[in-house]
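#struct-help
A.M.: can someone run this one for me? Single chain, 107 residues.
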Amino acid sequence: MERASDMLRIAGSTSHAVNGGGDIQLLGGPHPGPPWTIGMADPHRRGVPATTLTGTDMAVATSGAAERRLHFIDPKLSGRCRPYGRMCSCAATSSSAAWALASSVSP
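D.P.: on it. Structure tokens below:
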């Protein structure tokens, strides 16, 4: 996502949102108007935001099973694990930093 955002910036964009599978890189804000508002998924109520985050020039990444459901694999059981509905979302100045934080903290 950082690469796509950088390409847009180099091409002259001063305001954009790049969504890569739910992880988001923001530059500037929507014009005219307030900063970007991002809905954070509620793992227990699909399609309902648990909260929102507002800002500009930042990235947000989430690690967990809220949207993809059964995608974790337990090598001890040789199969998929049940999602526990937990997730971790982190904001940072870059998408790689946000992803690293969310992945390292996620249950």
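A.M.: thanks! Residues 95-105 form the longest helix (11 residues).
D.P.: also worth noting: The mean pLDDT is 79.
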